Amino acid sequence: MASELSPLTLETALPEEHGPPLPQSSQETINTIVHYYRGEMGRMAGWRDRIDRTSNWAITVVAAMLSVSLSTPTSHHGVLLFAMLLITLLLLIEARRYRFFDVYRARVRQLERGYFAQVLSPDGAPSAKWSTSIAASLRKPVFLMSYKDAVCRRLQRNYCWMYLILLLAWGLKITSPKMSMAGEFLGPVRSWSDLVANTALGPLPGWIVLILVAFFYGLVLYGSFRREEHEGELAHGQVHV
């Protein structure tokens, strides 16, 4: 009889009284809030764990690529450029995860500020704004920050330092003495033409590679120093992610 079952939807044709009962007392309401808080905490912690995993992958990639590139003079500087691309991919993945984490973190913080803080130490008249905000988010979940803001925030937290390390390693690689395939040292960079020759990447001449790297790090610098229009959680304390 599976074909006769209707698909799962958000709407139902059943009368309202056939739905699950709502809390009928203050004790039941408190229990519901406590269990909901635990659920949101678990969901927030799950997305936080996903963010940490991506950051750990990025750190591992940086360490591995540095080891491969700087271990021998014959290794190509393109390994570090490839590492920059991998780090960018992980940054974009982490930014997407961070947008989901931000939604659940906001709900948890609203509960803590609006309800639990008021229970522990009442401050002024109780307000229902926090519950109204959470209810609206539950009825129609929406992201609280743009993808661009999420990328910039993760860049400022962790990834700017990884990019800086890769840039320093790349600069060291293209200016240090190189070894030919025959095992002879070719000497350090002494002129602009030597630097351009060292930065060549396959069919791409060195000056194009330098321009692309400069443009890319210009974007990284912009994202690292960009400030958001709204303070978000920073308006409610210094502890944030």
UniProtKB/TrEMBL annotation:
Domain of life: Bacteria
Pfam entry (one): DUF2270
Alphabetically ordered keywords of this record: Membrane, Transmembrane, Transmembrane helix
Transmembrane segments: 78-95, 158-175, 195-220
Name used for this protein in its record: Membrane protein
Organism name: Sinorhizobium kostiense
